[in-house]
Design a protein that fits this description.
This protein is an alpha/beta fold and 336 residues long. 34% of the residues lie in helices and 24% in strands. It is built from 12 helices and 13 strands. Strands 3, 4, 5, 6, 7, 8, 9, 10, 11, 12 and 13 form an 11-stranded mixed beta sheet that branches. A two-stranded parallel ribbon has the order 1-2. α6 crosses α7 and α8 crosses α9.
Length: 336
Protein backbone atom coordinates (compact mmCIF):
# COMPACT_ATOMS: atom_id res chain seq x y z
CA UNK A 1 0.00 0.00 0.00
CA UNK A 2 1.18 3.53 -0.67
CA UNK A 3 1.24 6.20 2.03
CA UNK A 4 -2.03 7.84 1.01
CA UNK A 5 -3.93 4.56 1.28
CA UNK A 6 -2.46 3.96 4.73
CA UNK A 7 -3.43 7.41 5.96
CA UNK A 8 -6.91 7.10 4.46
CA UNK A 9 -7.47 3.71 6.09
CA UNK A 10 -6.32 5.01 9.47
CA UNK A 11 -8.80 7.89 9.35
CA UNK A 12 -11.68 5.43 9.61
CA UNK A 13 -10.61 4.42 13.13
CA UNK A 14 -9.68 5.93 16.46
CA UNK A 15 -5.95 6.04 17.17
CA UNK A 16 -6.28 3.42 19.91
CA UNK A 17 -7.98 0.96 17.55
CA UNK A 18 -4.69 -0.14 15.96
CA UNK A 19 -1.03 -0.55 16.82
CA UNK A 20 2.03 -0.83 14.53
CA UNK A 21 5.34 -2.40 15.59
CA UNK A 22 8.17 -1.51 13.18
CA UNK A 23 11.69 -2.98 13.26
CA UNK A 24 14.63 -2.82 10.86
CA UNK A 25 18.43 -2.99 10.84
CA UNK A 26 21.03 -0.34 10.05
CA UNK A 27 22.51 -2.57 7.31
CA UNK A 28 19.15 -3.51 5.76
CA UNK A 29 18.84 -2.27 2.17
CA UNK A 30 15.31 -1.12 3.11
CA UNK A 31 16.55 0.89 6.11
CA UNK A 32 16.26 4.30 4.39
CA UNK A 33 12.81 3.44 3.06
CA UNK A 34 11.58 2.42 6.51
CA UNK A 35 13.07 5.56 8.03
CA UNK A 36 11.23 7.72 5.48
CA UNK A 37 7.95 5.90 6.17
CA UNK A 38 8.36 6.37 9.93
CA UNK A 39 9.18 10.07 9.48
CA UNK A 40 5.87 10.50 7.64
CA UNK A 41 4.01 8.57 10.35
CA UNK A 42 5.45 10.91 12.97
CA UNK A 43 3.98 13.85 11.11
CA UNK A 44 0.56 12.25 10.63
CA UNK A 45 -2.22 12.92 13.15
CA UNK A 46 -3.29 9.25 13.07
CA UNK A 47 -0.01 7.96 14.49
CA UNK A 48 1.60 8.83 17.81
CA UNK A 49 4.93 7.20 18.62
CA UNK A 50 5.01 4.98 21.73
CA UNK A 51 1.22 5.20 21.81
CA UNK A 52 -0.06 3.43 18.71
CA UNK A 53 3.22 2.72 16.96
CA UNK A 54 6.77 1.85 18.01
CA UNK A 55 9.90 1.99 15.86
CA UNK A 56 13.04 0.01 16.73
CA UNK A 57 16.39 -0.20 14.88
CA UNK A 58 19.00 -2.93 15.46
CA UNK A 59 22.61 -1.91 14.86
CA UNK A 60 24.31 -4.00 12.15
CA UNK A 61 21.28 -6.13 11.22
CA UNK A 62 20.65 -6.87 7.54
CA UNK A 63 17.68 -7.92 5.40
CA UNK A 64 17.65 -11.64 6.23
CA UNK A 65 16.18 -14.54 8.13
CA UNK A 66 18.12 -14.06 11.37
CA UNK A 67 16.92 -10.48 11.63
CA UNK A 68 13.35 -11.33 10.66
CA UNK A 69 13.15 -14.14 13.23
CA UNK A 70 14.29 -11.86 16.05
CA UNK A 71 11.92 -9.08 14.97
CA UNK A 72 9.01 -11.53 14.75
CA UNK A 73 9.82 -13.05 18.13
CA UNK A 74 9.91 -9.66 19.83
CA UNK A 75 6.86 -8.41 17.98
CA UNK A 76 4.73 -11.41 18.93
CA UNK A 77 5.91 -11.22 22.54
CA UNK A 78 4.97 -7.57 22.59
CA UNK A 79 1.46 -8.11 21.22
CA UNK A 80 0.66 -11.12 23.39
CA UNK A 81 2.38 -10.01 26.58
CA UNK A 82 0.00 -8.80 29.28
CA UNK A 83 2.26 -5.83 29.98
CA UNK A 84 1.65 -4.47 26.43
CA UNK A 85 1.83 -0.78 25.60
CA UNK A 86 -0.07 0.77 28.46
CA UNK A 87 1.74 -1.16 31.20
CA UNK A 88 5.26 -1.09 29.78
CA UNK A 89 7.94 0.57 31.93
CA UNK A 90 9.48 3.76 30.54
CA UNK A 91 12.70 5.59 31.42
CA UNK A 92 14.61 8.22 29.44
CA UNK A 93 12.72 7.35 26.23
CA UNK A 94 13.73 3.68 26.60
CA UNK A 95 11.20 0.91 27.12
CA UNK A 96 11.61 -2.24 29.15
CA UNK A 97 9.36 -5.09 28.14
CA UNK A 98 9.00 -7.26 31.23
CA UNK A 99 9.37 -10.97 30.57
CA UNK A 100 6.76 -13.64 31.23
CA UNK A 101 8.98 -16.64 32.06
CA UNK A 102 10.60 -17.43 35.40
CA UNK A 103 13.54 -19.62 36.39
CA UNK A 104 14.74 -19.94 40.01
CA UNK A 105 13.50 -16.50 40.93
CA UNK A 106 14.73 -14.81 37.73
CA UNK A 107 12.44 -13.24 35.15
CA UNK A 108 14.10 -14.72 32.09
CA UNK A 109 13.05 -12.82 29.00
CA UNK A 110 13.16 -9.06 29.67
CA UNK A 111 14.01 -6.67 26.84
CA UNK A 112 15.24 -3.10 26.97
CA UNK A 113 14.10 -1.40 23.77
CA UNK A 114 16.81 1.19 23.35
CA UNK A 115 16.49 3.85 20.69
CA UNK A 116 20.28 3.96 20.53
CA UNK A 117 21.22 0.26 20.74
CA UNK A 118 18.11 -1.65 19.68
CA UNK A 119 16.86 -4.58 21.77
CA UNK A 120 18.95 -5.63 24.77
CA UNK A 121 17.92 -8.93 26.37
CA UNK A 122 18.44 -9.78 30.02
CA UNK A 123 17.23 -11.79 33.00
CA UNK A 124 16.50 -10.12 36.33
CA UNK A 125 16.26 -11.09 39.98
CA UNK A 126 14.75 -8.75 42.55
CA UNK A 127 15.14 -9.59 46.25
CA UNK A 128 12.18 -10.62 48.34
CA UNK A 129 10.25 -7.63 49.63
CA UNK A 130 11.67 -5.33 46.95
CA UNK A 131 10.45 -1.75 47.43
CA UNK A 132 11.06 1.04 44.93
CA UNK A 133 11.58 3.42 47.86
CA UNK A 134 14.55 1.38 49.09
CA UNK A 135 18.22 1.38 48.09
CA UNK A 136 19.68 -1.76 46.53
CA UNK A 137 23.06 -3.02 45.40
CA UNK A 138 23.08 -4.34 41.82
CA UNK A 139 25.23 -6.96 40.08
CA UNK A 140 25.57 -7.50 36.32
CA UNK A 141 26.76 -10.90 35.00
CA UNK A 142 28.07 -11.26 31.43
CA UNK A 143 27.93 -14.90 30.30
CA UNK A 144 30.17 -16.77 27.90
CA UNK A 145 29.41 -18.20 24.47
CA UNK A 146 26.68 -20.62 25.55
CA UNK A 147 24.71 -17.82 27.20
CA UNK A 148 24.45 -15.56 24.15
CA UNK A 149 20.98 -14.64 22.93
CA UNK A 150 20.99 -16.72 19.75
CA UNK A 151 21.67 -19.82 21.87
CA UNK A 152 18.16 -19.55 23.30
CA UNK A 153 16.24 -17.41 25.76
CA UNK A 154 17.44 -18.06 29.30
CA UNK A 155 20.62 -19.98 28.43
CA UNK A 156 22.58 -17.25 30.24
CA UNK A 157 21.24 -18.68 33.50
CA UNK A 158 23.15 -21.90 32.91
CA UNK A 159 26.15 -20.26 34.62
CA UNK A 160 26.84 -20.17 38.36
CA UNK A 161 27.56 -16.48 38.91
CA UNK A 162 24.01 -15.01 38.96
CA UNK A 163 22.93 -17.52 41.59
CA UNK A 164 26.06 -17.51 43.75
CA UNK A 165 26.12 -13.70 43.87
CA UNK A 166 22.86 -13.68 45.81
CA UNK A 167 24.61 -15.28 48.80
CA UNK A 168 26.77 -12.21 49.36
CA UNK A 169 23.96 -9.69 49.65
CA UNK A 170 20.41 -10.95 50.09
CA UNK A 171 19.08 -7.50 49.18
CA UNK A 172 20.94 -7.25 45.85
CA UNK A 173 19.35 -6.99 42.41
CA UNK A 174 20.99 -9.41 39.94
CA UNK A 175 20.97 -8.82 36.19
CA UNK A 176 22.23 -11.47 33.76
CA UNK A 177 22.61 -10.18 30.22
CA UNK A 178 22.00 -12.11 26.99
CA UNK A 179 24.24 -10.39 24.51
CA UNK A 180 24.76 -10.95 20.78
CA UNK A 181 28.55 -11.28 20.77
CA UNK A 182 31.57 -10.47 22.95
CA UNK A 183 32.75 -7.32 21.15
CA UNK A 184 32.11 -3.63 20.80
CA UNK A 185 28.38 -3.85 20.15
CA UNK A 186 27.73 -5.97 23.23
CA UNK A 187 29.94 -3.70 25.33
CA UNK A 188 27.80 -0.75 24.27
CA UNK A 189 24.64 -2.77 24.99
CA UNK A 190 25.98 -3.52 28.46
CA UNK A 191 26.73 0.13 29.17
CA UNK A 192 23.27 1.13 27.95
CA UNK A 193 21.57 -1.37 30.26
CA UNK A 194 23.76 -0.47 33.25
CA UNK A 195 23.03 3.23 32.77
CA UNK A 196 19.32 2.47 32.46
CA UNK A 197 19.35 0.84 35.90
CA UNK A 198 21.61 3.46 37.47
CA UNK A 199 18.99 6.06 36.58
CA UNK A 200 16.56 4.24 38.87
CA UNK A 201 16.22 5.94 42.29
CA UNK A 202 16.28 2.59 44.13
CA UNK A 203 19.86 1.72 43.02
CA UNK A 204 22.70 2.29 45.49
CA UNK A 205 25.42 3.65 43.18
CA UNK A 206 28.10 2.83 45.74
CA UNK A 207 27.40 -0.89 45.21
CA UNK A 208 27.42 -1.63 41.48
CA UNK A 209 29.24 -4.85 40.55
CA UNK A 210 29.96 -6.67 37.29
CA UNK A 211 31.54 -9.94 36.18
CA UNK A 212 32.37 -11.51 32.84
CA UNK A 213 33.22 -15.14 32.11
CA UNK A 214 34.96 -16.31 28.91
CA UNK A 215 33.55 -14.27 25.99
CA UNK A 216 31.71 -12.22 28.59
CA UNK A 217 35.11 -11.39 30.07
CA UNK A 218 36.18 -9.92 26.73
CA UNK A 219 33.02 -7.82 26.73
CA UNK A 220 33.71 -6.82 30.33
CA UNK A 221 37.21 -5.64 29.42
CA UNK A 222 35.81 -3.39 26.67
CA UNK A 223 33.15 -2.03 29.03
CA UNK A 224 35.84 -1.22 31.63
CA UNK A 225 37.88 0.42 28.89
CA UNK A 226 34.97 2.75 28.18
CA UNK A 227 32.98 3.41 31.37
CA UNK A 228 34.79 1.91 34.40
CA UNK A 229 33.46 4.69 36.64
CA UNK A 230 30.00 3.09 36.53
CA UNK A 231 31.18 0.18 38.69
CA UNK A 232 32.26 -0.37 42.27
CA UNK A 233 34.32 -3.45 41.36
CA UNK A 234 34.65 -6.05 38.63
CA UNK A 235 35.43 -9.76 38.26
CA UNK A 236 37.17 -10.98 35.09
CA UNK A 237 37.11 -14.78 34.62
CA UNK A 238 38.91 -17.10 32.16
CA UNK A 239 39.19 -14.65 29.30
CA UNK A 240 41.47 -12.23 27.47
CA UNK A 241 41.76 -8.45 27.84
CA UNK A 242 40.58 -6.38 24.85
CA UNK A 243 39.79 -3.07 26.57
CA UNK A 244 41.59 0.26 27.07
CA UNK A 245 43.88 -0.13 30.07
CA UNK A 246 44.59 3.59 30.62
CA UNK A 247 40.90 4.42 30.92
CA UNK A 248 40.53 1.68 33.53
CA UNK A 249 43.53 2.74 35.58
CA UNK A 250 42.46 6.39 35.47
CA UNK A 251 39.27 5.35 37.26
CA UNK A 252 41.00 3.01 39.78
CA UNK A 253 38.01 0.65 39.61
CA UNK A 254 38.91 -2.49 41.62
CA UNK A 255 39.41 -5.54 39.40
CA UNK A 256 39.91 -9.23 40.27
CA UNK A 257 41.36 -11.33 37.41
CA UNK A 258 41.23 -15.13 37.69
CA UNK A 259 42.18 -17.75 35.10
CA UNK A 260 43.75 -21.21 34.78
CA UNK A 261 47.48 -21.33 34.01
CA UNK A 262 46.73 -23.53 30.98
CA UNK A 263 43.28 -22.25 30.06
CA UNK A 264 42.34 -24.43 27.09
CA UNK A 265 40.79 -21.59 25.10
CA UNK A 266 42.72 -18.42 25.97
CA UNK A 267 45.86 -19.58 27.75
CA UNK A 268 46.96 -17.23 30.53
CA UNK A 269 49.66 -15.10 28.89
CA UNK A 270 47.32 -12.39 27.56
CA UNK A 271 45.78 -11.99 30.99
CA UNK A 272 49.21 -11.82 32.64
CA UNK A 273 50.37 -9.24 30.10
CA UNK A 274 47.26 -7.12 30.69
CA UNK A 275 47.80 -7.31 34.45
CA UNK A 276 51.46 -6.25 34.11
CA UNK A 277 50.42 -3.34 31.89
CA UNK A 278 47.87 -2.28 34.50
CA UNK A 279 50.49 -2.42 37.26
CA UNK A 280 52.88 -0.32 35.17
CA UNK A 281 50.13 2.20 34.45
CA UNK A 282 49.23 2.49 38.13
CA UNK A 283 52.89 2.96 39.07
CA UNK A 284 53.21 5.72 36.49
CA UNK A 285 50.26 7.41 38.19
CA UNK A 286 52.09 7.33 41.52
CA UNK A 287 50.29 4.46 43.27
CA UNK A 288 52.24 2.39 45.77
CA UNK A 289 52.44 -1.40 45.60
CA UNK A 290 50.04 -1.67 48.55
CA UNK A 291 47.55 0.67 46.86
CA UNK A 292 47.75 -1.35 43.64
CA UNK A 293 47.26 -4.65 45.45
CA UNK A 294 44.13 -3.23 47.08
CA UNK A 295 42.45 -2.58 43.74
CA UNK A 296 44.02 -5.13 41.40
CA UNK A 297 44.44 -8.90 41.84
CA UNK A 298 45.80 -11.50 39.44
CA UNK A 299 44.87 -15.04 40.48
CA UNK A 300 46.32 -17.71 38.17
CA UNK A 301 45.30 -21.23 39.15
CA UNK A 302 47.69 -24.12 38.45
CA UNK A 303 46.41 -27.40 37.05
CA UNK A 304 46.30 -29.10 40.45
CA UNK A 305 43.63 -26.61 41.54
CA UNK A 306 41.32 -28.10 38.92
CA UNK A 307 42.25 -31.78 39.20
CA UNK A 308 41.87 -31.70 43.00
CA UNK A 309 38.28 -30.59 42.45
CA UNK A 310 37.52 -33.19 39.79
CA UNK A 311 37.88 -30.90 36.76
CA UNK A 312 39.97 -31.64 33.68
CA UNK A 313 39.36 -28.59 31.45
CA UNK A 314 40.68 -25.33 32.90
CA UNK A 315 38.52 -23.10 30.73
CA UNK A 316 35.16 -24.79 31.10
CA UNK A 317 35.77 -25.03 34.85
CA UNK A 318 35.97 -21.24 35.13
CA UNK A 319 32.37 -21.21 36.31
CA UNK A 320 33.56 -22.99 39.46
CA UNK A 321 35.31 -19.80 40.62
CA UNK A 322 31.85 -18.52 41.54
CA UNK A 323 31.98 -20.93 44.50
CA UNK A 324 35.25 -19.49 45.82
CA UNK A 325 34.32 -17.31 48.78
CA UNK A 326 37.63 -15.44 48.82
CA UNK A 327 37.06 -14.30 45.23
CA UNK A 328 33.42 -13.36 45.60
CA UNK A 329 33.98 -11.72 48.98
CA UNK A 330 36.71 -9.54 47.48
CA UNK A 331 34.36 -8.30 44.75
CA UNK A 332 31.33 -7.66 46.95
CA UNK A 333 33.24 -6.15 49.86
CA UNK A 334 34.25 -3.12 47.79
CA UNK A 335 32.44 0.21 48.26
CA UNK A 336 32.76 3.49 46.43
Amino acid sequence: LDDENIWKSAENYDNNDYFVFIMTGTEDFAYSYVNDRVAKMRENKNFEENENFIYRVKEGYTHGGVSANEYTYNGLKFFYNNSNVQNIQESNNDLVEVGTKENKGFIVDNTLHSEKQGDIHFSSYYPEGFNENGKYAIYFALPGWEGLYFQGVGTNLGESYPYEAQKYNKDMIVISLQLDDWGEESANDTIELVEYFLNKPFIDKSKVYISGYSGGGETLSIVLGKKPELFTSALYVSSQWDGNIEVLTDSKTPLYMVIGENDSYYGSEKTKNAYNSMVSSYKSKGLTEAEINNILVLDVKDHSYFTSRGYSDEHGSGMSFAYEENIMNWVFSKRK
